[in-house]
Write a structure and sequence with these properties.
This protein is of the alpha/beta class and 404 residues long. The protein has helices at residues 5-10, 32-40, 50-70, 83-95, 116-125, 146-149, 172-181, 201-204, 228-232, 257-270, 281-308, 335-344, 357-362, 382-403, and strands at 20-21, 77-80, 103-107, 128-132, 154-160, 185-189, 208-212, 222-225, 313-316, 325-330, 347-348, 350-352, 371-375. The structure holds pyridoxal-5'-phosphate.
């Protein structure tokens, strides 16, 4: 059945404003059921009274929802304010057990949220950091290099499932296999990849997988999934009176109960994207995201072809397996100027380095403003792509007039 784009778009109240949102990689628009769920949830937790028990239920429900999204166990889902915060917690916890001679492997393709916490934890422990490099021409992160990078001293490999700069979807399963053969753990950043297709913790080979709900129609909360037994083997720094249970002991402070209600609603929403899907919520989420992925790929193909046809556009990277995200520059226009000109025309894109710090530094683009990023989400249309391309043509024509 073809993807019902009109029905899908109707679920996002913000889309009626008329902006073309190609900024989903920075944060998607929020789905209506999420907004409703957040506004309905109130009050602090307690086992003593009904409203308090409802708040406790929100935590359990959000864990179960994220578990269905990632193919994890609900008891293995740690909830937190952001992917960055969760990764710092894990890095500090694991790093406390490292010492000189130990090694961690990070990649220059990753968002800094899956780089700096590991680099800093390694530095604090006197451990060594080794770097996986991407191919500057294609944006690929060759999995083969990990055979040399990973040794019996490697304690952790941190790698992205999807680059938020150029979209690359590295062969995480192959990288994880190499890491596991040497006894290392693998932390996968799924923040960019998870919104764009079905995800499975086990097939990725991830020991830890992090995702942020605001990249998949939900609120500004994040989750990290792992085998509950893995969490049970770790002792994070924590307050004395807070729960020592797994996974609670990795969560700090009082949770945002309304936003947790939004997390569950967002997963439930993803489970409706293929209205013909049946079965468990996990089955329906997978079907919904597969349907969304096929739609996104068609829209993205038109965008890539349109960019490639314009000689005044330089596109960075051409990875074979990718999320529908592309970075580019327009000749004669600084990335921030391009984004501002498009924004003035109602077309929303990000510019800069979007915290893909090492990528833009290695490309020599960081000091001159990075790039402009267009990412396609399941509510985008080919008409919006044509609108974006037409605005780029207008920008280039205006630039030419100025140069004359
Ligand atoms: C690939 C990737 N990883 C990590 C992050 C950080 O996520 P959070 O804002 O939840 O810390 C982002 C945010 O843009 C991202 O795109």
């Amino acid at each position: 059945m073809p993807f019902d784009i009109a029905r899908t778009r109707a679920a996002y109240p913000a889309l009626t404003e008329g902006f073309a949102h190609f900024d989903g990689a920075g944060g998607t628009q929020t789905a209506r059921p999420v907004i409703e769920a957040v506004s309905a949830a109130t009050g602090n937790r307690s086992t003593a009274f009904v409203p308090g028990r409802r708040s406790l239920d929100l935590v359990a429900a959000a864990r179960a929802a994220v578990a269905d999204l990632l193919g994890a166990e609900a008891d293995g889902v740690v909830l937190g304010p952001s992917a960055t915060a969760l990764t710092y917690t894990l890095a500090r916890t694991l790093g406390a057990g490292w010492g000189p001679g130990d090694e961690v492997v990070v990649s220059r393709l990753d968002h800094d949220a899956n780089v700096r916490p590991w680099v800093q934890a390694a530095e604090a422990a006197g451990a060594t950091v080794r770097w996986a490099e991407f191919d500057p021409a294609t944006g690929e992160l060759p999995a083969g290099q990990y055979a040399d990078l990973v040794t019996e001293r490697t304690r952790l490999v941190a790698v992205t499932a999807g680059s938020n700069a150029v979209g690359t979807a590295p062969d995480v399963a192959a990288i994880a296999k190499t890491a596991h053969a040497a006894g290392a753990l693998v932390c996968v950043d799924g923040v960019h990849a998870v919104p764009h297709g079905p995800t499975d913790l086990a097939s990725l080979g991830a020991d830890f997988l992090v995702t942020s709900a605001y990249k998949w129609s939900g609120p500004h909360l994040a989750a990290m999934a792992a085998d509950p037994a893995r969490w049970a083997s770790l002792r994070p720094a924590k307050l004395l009176p807070s729960s020592d249970a797994v996974p609670d002991r990795f969560e700090y402070g009082t949770p945002s109960f309304p936003l947790l209600a939004g997390v569950t609603a967002a997963v439930d929403h993803l489970a409706t994207l293929d209205p013909a899907a049946t079965g468990s919520r996990r089955d329906r989420v997978r079907a919904g995201l597969a349907a969304a992925q096929a739609h996104e790929e068609a829209v993205f193909e038109r965008l890539l072809a349109g960019l490639a046809a314009r000689p005044f556009v330089t596109v960075y990277g051409s990875p074979a397996r990718r999320c529908p995200t592309v970075s580019f520059r327009v000749a004669g226009s600084a990335p921030a100027e391009t984004a501002a000109a498009l924004g003035a025309a109602g077309v929303c894109l990000s510019s800069g380095d979007y915290y893909a710090y090492e990528y833009f530094r290695a490309m020599g683009l960081r000091d001159t403003g990075g790039a402009v990023r267009a990412s396609v989400y399941h509510y985008n249309t080919v008409e919006e792509v044509d609108r974006l391309l037409a605005e780029l043509d207008r920008l280039a024509a205006a630039g030419e007039r100025m140069a004359r």
